[in-house]
Design goal:
single chain; alpha/beta; UDP-n-acetylglucosamine1-carboxyvinyl-transferase, Chain; 4-stranded mixed beta sheet; 14 helices
């Protein structure tokens, strides 16, 4: 069954809501559960989204026993009896994060066979940094029948330099290194808050990791890891989407369950655009104040402005009082949502990695379609602000990253309905 959103625009969002655990840390934690052959790993506040369901299928195919209480957000994984070291094409092609099982399978069994990953069509996201790091730890890596195969008798520590700070590459190497002999140092590691929380989770399992959250991470190998219970950090991308939705509609909301430190660059830009932002240890509130001001955005790895909030802020800037510029420095195809925004009346010009957005007084409702998770979220924000009704097709993309987005927005006063055809 194919679902779409029907949205009536120009209803300001008001109220309070809470975010769930960040999918970009839950997914590697699910993979890391494969490192333990004792007990049950339990994760709390887990969102019931398509990417989580896909990863459940991946680790179940490997032999893990998984229970997901989706109503209460509790996910339990028993990985004692893994029966396979192969992650098949029919599952891995759906989501790039499935490749994260490579590191733990290699560390625990000395063998991992994983199909090349798929996911959103927002640009090249090669796994070369993953493989280079694993090779530095002693893995022999080859291609066999469309699969990447890694083998080793025993992993050993090493020094690894990433040419670019790969989020999932850092996590994959961390999982391999925790059971390797000796010490591993990752230079130019991803500094995302999710990586820091992931290290906290691994250390709770018995790993010895320091420096996570900085550009240099040190891992001292241990002999074994235990299963644990953990509540991951809140999803900063989900939180940022709601904050921008409030700004797009001229509303006022508070988002709970998120540390402002994890959205510093976004908060600076919200304030630069004229929003009033207030914050506490575990919440961020925003109040729109008239038409937004234009700004310049440059996407960069954390602590820079997140590429995963670029489509959403573009939707808001399409209504700014002036001309804004967005430089996309992470993914070369991350402007594919622009054509759909233009159907709503946005005035956007693309030249290479630069988008120039000339704000218009109002957007007009239209029928549009999502092409990826965050681009789809950006279209929702634009439709919420547009005059008249909009229809957004292919919301299965949005479902990969947001749990029942329409219900949370409706709770804030949005006129948005999920329908099927």
């Amino acid at each position: 069954m194919l679902y779409y959103y029907e949205i009536e625009g120009r209803h300001p969002l008001e109220g309070k809501l809470a975010v769930l655990a960040a999918k970009n840390v839950v997914l590697p934690m699910m993979a890391a559960s494969l490192l333990s052959d004792t007990g049950v790993t339990a994760l709390n506040n887990v969102p019931d989204i398509a990417d989580i369901r896909t990863m459940i299928k991946v680790i179940e195919r490997l032999g893990a026993i998984v229970e997901f209480d989706s109503e209460n957000g509790r996910l339990s994984i028993d990985a004692k009896s893994i029966t396979s070291q192969e992650a098949p094409y029919d599952l891995v092609r759906k989501m790039r994060a499935s490749f994260l099982v490579m590191g733990p399978l290699l560390a625990r069994f000395g063998l991992a066979c994983v199909s090349q990953p798929g996911g959103c069509a927002i640009g090249a996201r090669p796994v070369d940094q993953h493989l280079k790091g694993l090779a530095k730890l002693g893995a022999k890596i080859g291609e066999e029948h469309g699969y990447t195969v890694a083998r080793t008798k025993r992993l050993h520590g090493g020094e690894i330099y990433f040419d670019r700070p790969s989020h999932t590459g850092t996590e994959n190497v961390m999982m391999a290194a925790v059971l390797a002999d000796g010490t591993t140092t990752i230079f130019n590691a991803a500094q995302d808050p999710e990586v820091a929380d992931f290290a906290k989770f691994l250390n709770k399992m018995g790993a010895n990791i320091s420096g996570a959250g900085t550009s240099n991470i040190v891992i001292n190998g241990v002999n074994s890891l235990d299963s644990v219970e953990h509540t991951p950090i809140g999803d900063r991308l989900e939180a940022g989407t709601y904050l921008l939705a409030a700004l797009s509609t001229g509303g006022k909301i508070e988002v709970d369950g998120i540390s402002p430190d994890n959205l510093t660059s976004t908060i600076f830009k919200l304030e630069e655009m004229g929003a009033k932002v207030h914050r506490g240890d575990n919440f961020i509130g925003i109040t729109a104040s008239g038409r937004v001001r234009p700004v310049e955005i440059i996407t960069d790895p954390f602590p820079g402005f997140p590429t995963d909030l670029q489509p959403q802020i573009m939707a808001v800037l399409s209504q700014a009082d002036g001309t804004s510029v967005i430089w996309e420095r992470i993914f070369e195809n991350r402007f594919i949502h622009v054509m759909e925004l233009q159907r709503l009346g946005a005035n956007i010009t693309i030249l290479g990695d630069r988008a120039t957005i000339v704000g218009v007084e109002k957007l007009e409702g239209a029928e549009i379609m999502a092409s990826d998770i965050r681009g789809g979220a950006g279209l929702v924000l634009a439709a919420l602000a547009a005059k008249g009704n909009s229809i957004i097709q292919r919301v299965y993309h949005i479902d990969r990253g947001y749990q029942r987005l329409e219900e949370k927005l409706s709770g804030l006063g949005a006129k948005i309905v999920r329908k099927s055809r």
